[in-house]
């Protein structure tokens, strides 16, 4: 299908219609930022279903390592599920261990077509894309498998993820912002899962809106709900991944990093120090730059197996 401009998802109208009640806006990412659920979701839900549904049993060890690198331990941490899946396929296909075993890694070409199509990059977006594609060209095995995989992931998450509390100082920070800041969850997770997770721990009540993957990308969430409704330096996104920083900077608003591995310390600093600077308009500039510079050093770009290979060759 021809490349189309990104559509405004139907569900996003709640964000477009949102009217500020306070002078400041803070968007908060969910997985790995407010909740310590990244390890559980990826290691127990995403990775096992990728191996099972995409037939990667013969190279499960390398598939697992690649999934964890893409989704948890590199600069692509927190990436949308479809973009991350094609990246896993692309990296895995090039690994010598995979080539040596003649394992068949899916091309991901049809999923890439979906990513470029302008359909929302959500589960529902893929279901719709696969149905529209089937109506025009007949069923496509990769798209059918993609729908099955996404369904299986969401079922695994609904079954597995519970009892994971927010990081220390999240609740305290939300309380401290009440009456001063409009608060929104800004996440690439399905809304149903977000409402369950934020509701389970009694912190959904602090949030004005819960924005998930059905309402567009994180950049769109900020554009629709906040941009132009507050001065740019009154809008802040809190996130744990470079993609969160990119979403904030794409619309020229502020970013506060929750450092992977140092989440508690990051939230404590937000509660004790950064929030006050944000509310007194002293956050942007040297203070924000220093936090982001430190955050950017934490996650690698190059897979560790590439480094191992290079060292071996150099020896
Ligand atoms: Mg995250």
Overview of the molecule:
The protein has 315 residues and is an alpha/beta fold. Helix 10 (191-200) links the parallel strand 2 (181-186) and strand 3 (209-211). It folds into two domains: 10-36 and 167-296, Rossmann fold, CATH 3.40.50; 38-160, no CATH class. It is built from 15 helices and five strands. The chain has a five-stranded parallel β-sheet, with helices on both faces. It has helices at residues 13-16, 38-53, 60-71, 81-93, 96-100, 109-116, 123-137, 141-160, 170-177, 191-200, 218-225, 242-250, 263-279, 286-296, 304-314, and strands at 24-28, 181-186, 209-211, 235-239, 254-257. The model has no long low-confidence stretch (mean pLDDT 94). Magnesium ion binds at residues 29, 31-33, 78, 239-241.
Secondary-structure topology with pairs:
Elements: H1 13-16, E1 24-28, H2 38-53, H3 60-71, H4 81-93, H5 96-100, H6 109-116, H7 123-137, H8 141-160, H9 170-177, E2 181-186, H10 191-200, E3 209-211, H11 218-225, E4 235-239, H12 242-250, E5 254-257, H13 263-279, H14 286-296, H15 304-314
Parallel strand pairs: 1-2, 1-4, 2-3, 4-5
This protein binds magnesium ion (MG).
Helix amount: 40-55%
The CATH homologous superfamily of the largest domain: HAD superfamily/HAD-like
| DSSP E strands, number | 5
Mind describing the biggest β-sheet?
5 strands, parallel
Defining traits:
315 residues, alpha/beta, Rossmann fold, 2 domains, five-stranded parallel beta sheet, 5 strands, binds magnesium ion
Short description:
The protein is built from 15 helices and five strands. It is an alpha/beta fold.
């Amino acid at each position: 299908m021809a490349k189309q401009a990104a559509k405004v998802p139907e569900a996003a109208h709640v964000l477009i219609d949102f009217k500020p009640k306070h002078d400041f806006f803070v968007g908060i990412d969910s997985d790995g930022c407010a909740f310590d659920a990244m390890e559980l979701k990826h290691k127990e839900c995403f990775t096992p279903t990728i191996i099972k549904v995409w037939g990667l049993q013969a190279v499960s060890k390398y598939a697992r390592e690649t999934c964890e690198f893409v989704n948890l331990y590199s600069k692509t941490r927190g990436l949308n599920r479809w973009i991350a899946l094609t990246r896993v396929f692309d990296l895995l296909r090039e690994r010598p261990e995979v080539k040596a075993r003649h394992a068949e890694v899916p091309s991901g070409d049809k999923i890439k077509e979906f990513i470029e199509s302008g359909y929302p990059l959500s589960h529902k977006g893929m279901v719709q894309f696969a149905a529209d594609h089937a109506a025009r060209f007949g069923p496509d095995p990769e798209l059918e498998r993609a729908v099955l995989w996404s369904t299986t992931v969401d079922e695994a998450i609904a079954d597995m993820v519970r009892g994971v509390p927010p990081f220390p100082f999240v609740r305290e920070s939300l309380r401290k912002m009440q009456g001063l800041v409009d608060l929104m969850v800004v996440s690439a997770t399905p809304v149903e899962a977000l409402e369950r997770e934020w509701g389970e721990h009694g912190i959904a009540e602090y949030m004005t809106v819960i924005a998930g993957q059905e309402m567009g990308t994180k950049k769109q969430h900020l554009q629709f709900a906040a941009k132009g409704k507050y001065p740019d330096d009154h809008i802040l996104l809190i996130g744990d991944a470079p993609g969160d920083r990119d979403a904030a900077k794409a619309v020229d608003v502020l970013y506060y990093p929750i450092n992977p591995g140092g989440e508690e310390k990051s939230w404590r600093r937000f509660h004790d120090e950064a929030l006050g600077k944000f509310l007194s308009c002293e956050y942007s500039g040297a203070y924000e730059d220093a936090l982001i510079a430190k955050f950017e050093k934490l996650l690698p770009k190059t897979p560790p197996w590439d480094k191992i290979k290079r060292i071996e060759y150099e020896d």
